[in-house]
């Protein structure tokens, strides 16, 4: 019985000692966790030091016989206090990370947290009631030199294995790309380091998993609502305790603002709103969604953070999982710059007509359209102007919208009756993949791309004449 009590003391001391060391090594995370549990900011900083110090002192006091029972009572009291805080927090519908073992292991609180703490509290109570048992130092003193050496070797081996495991898990969580690159190298793959391995993420073209997550202000957002703007959705997976994720946050904000007209960017993170709100405000982030653990990332088969997946406007997976900063940047560039293809929703735009009135693409919904990308200073455009006017006189085909470079005066001399919208820098044309003039593309009545991009006067006129007759005036 006395040896059982000693074993309980050593287990209890080891748990408290590891927890204390991990919290001291991650004081910032400990402060954030205390804040998430409702501790005022003025107290969270000193408590982030005092709490692990108290755990360390209890762990040390469990070793000598004279202080073991008192230490068991103190340890049980600490755990009972924390268990009560967990139960109250869960009752309020919140699940912050417990951070009990600092950066070594952190996951949202739940029934498992309560069960674990109750078990550890029971060990403390057992030490208090059963008495000190065999002295830890006395037991060590009775070991022969060989037994003592073996014991030390086993302890060192256990500590070493634990350290390697923690390092490997941290490497996988925060630097998943590195592991995938190593695997690619070992298999002889010559794929570029910035390209995600094929097994990362769901199959391109498969249905994207639906999700319904809370935002920072308690609102509920779903994948369907994010797709309601008829734009692709880039889902970024992060964690507030992931260093590479935090380094990318300024770029996340820039991407959201820069590409807001062509790409919806949602940030799916862990922990609660309090842990994520300061960084979101600092970097001007929107569409920040909170997963309870990793359930949404798991649904997308994303194994690490930071990572990103592109979802098409139709709700299908449009890319492999991009793991790591370089791969994410490449995916953002390709997603924002990717011209729409047949079946895609046409990029929305708003441009002035020759009279200076702002017009947007939604006004023309319901009619088949031919968008002509034009430049009055283009020789090839001028050579096809007469054919364009003749096509108008025929009174057949789709409505024609001319997106023209230059100013109103230069385009007024075109002499056509169709709507002319001014796109001085060809910015809208570029979003459709047009890199020159004349070019054209056809849209169906639902505002989707209905043809490949026609290049040159001959192809442009042929595209216009193939359009279904359903002419209307605007």
Folded structure, characterized:
This protein is of the alpha/beta class. The chain folds into three domains: 2-142, no CATH class; 212-337, Glutaredoxin, CATH 3.40.30.10; 350-466, Glutaredoxin, CATH 3.40.30.10. 49% of the residues lie in helices and 12% in strands. It contains 17 helices and 14 strands. It has helices at residues 2-25, 27-36, 41-61, 65-91, 111-130, 136-141, 145-174, 176-186, 223-226, 243-258, 273-283, 295-299, 325-337, 379-394, 408-412, 427-431, 457-466, and strands at 212-215, 220-222, 233-237, 264-269, 288-290, 307-311, 322-323, 350-352, 358-360, 369-374, 399-404, 419-422, 439-443, 454-455. β11 (399-404), α15 and β12 (419-422) form a beta-alpha-beta unit. The longest helix is centred in the middle third of the chain and has 30 residues, at 145-174.
- Evaluate the radius of gyration: 32 Å
Task: Count every beta strand, where a strand is a DSSP E run of 2 or more residues.
Answer: 14
Assign an overall shape.
Answer: rod-shaped
List low-confidence stretches: 173-199, 468-474
Keywords:
474 residues; alpha/beta; Glutaredoxin; 3 domains; seven-stranded mixed beta sheet; five-stranded mixed beta sheet; 17 helices; rod-shaped; disordered C terminus
């Amino acid at each position: 019985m006395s040896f059982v009590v000693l074993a309980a003391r050593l287990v209890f001391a080891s748990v408290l000692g590891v927890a204390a060391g991990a919290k001291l090594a991650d004081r910032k995370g400990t402060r954030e966790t205390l804040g998430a549990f409702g501790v005022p900011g003025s107290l969270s900083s000193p408590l982030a030091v005092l709490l692990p110090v108290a755990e360390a002192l209890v762990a040390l006091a469990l070793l000598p016989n004279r202080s073991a029972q008192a230490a068991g009572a103190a340890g049980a009291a600490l755990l009972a206090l924390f268990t009560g805080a967990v139960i109250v927090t869960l009752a309020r519908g919140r699940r912050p990370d417990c951070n009990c073992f600092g950066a070594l292991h952190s996951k949202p609180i739940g029934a498992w947290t309560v069960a674990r703490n109750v078990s550890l509290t029971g060990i403390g109570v057992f030490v208090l009631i059963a008495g000190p048992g065999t002295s830890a130092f006395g037991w060590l003193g009775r070991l022969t030199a060989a037994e003592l050496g073996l014991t030390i070797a086993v302890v060192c081996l256990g500590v070493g294995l634990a350290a390697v495991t923690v390092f490997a898990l941290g490497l996988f969580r925060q630097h998943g790309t590195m592991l995938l690159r190593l695997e690619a190298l070992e298999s002889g793959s010559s794929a570029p380091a910035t390209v995600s391995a094929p097994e990362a993420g769901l199959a391109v073209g498969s249905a994207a998993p639906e999700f319904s997550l809370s935002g920072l202000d308690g609102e509920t957002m779903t994948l369907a609502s994010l797709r309601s703007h008829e734009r692709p959705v880039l889902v970024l997976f992060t964690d507030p305790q992931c260093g590479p994720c935090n380094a990318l946050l300024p770029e996340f904000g820039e991407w959201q603002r820069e590409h807001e007209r062509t790409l919806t960017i949602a940030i799916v993170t862990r922990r609660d709103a309090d842990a994520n709100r300061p960084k979101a405000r600092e970097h001007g982030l929107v569409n920040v969604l909170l997963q309870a653990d990793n359930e949404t990332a798991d649904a997308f088969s994303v194994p690490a953070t930071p990572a990103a997946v592109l979802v098409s406007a139709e709700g299908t997976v449009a890319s492999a999982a991009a793991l790591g900063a370089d791969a994410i940047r490449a995916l953002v560039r390709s997603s924002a710059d990717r011209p729409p293809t047949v079946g895609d929703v046409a990029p929305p735009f708003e441009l002035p007509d020759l009279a200076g009135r702002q017009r947007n693409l939604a006004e023309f919904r319901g009619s088949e359209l031919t968008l002509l990308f034009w430049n009055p200073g283009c020789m090839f455009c001028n050579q096809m102007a007469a054919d364009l006017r003749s096509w108008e006189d025929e009174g057949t085909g789709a409505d024609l919208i001319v997106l023209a470079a230059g100013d109103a005066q230069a385009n007024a001399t075109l002499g056509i009756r169709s709507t002319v919208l001014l796109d001085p820098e060809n910015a809208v044309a570029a979003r459709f993949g047009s890199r020159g003039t004349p070019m054209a593309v056809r849209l169906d009545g639902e505002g989707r791309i209905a043809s490949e991009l026609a290049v040159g006067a001959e192809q442009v006129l042929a595209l216009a004449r193939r359009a279904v007759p359903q002419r209307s005036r605007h």
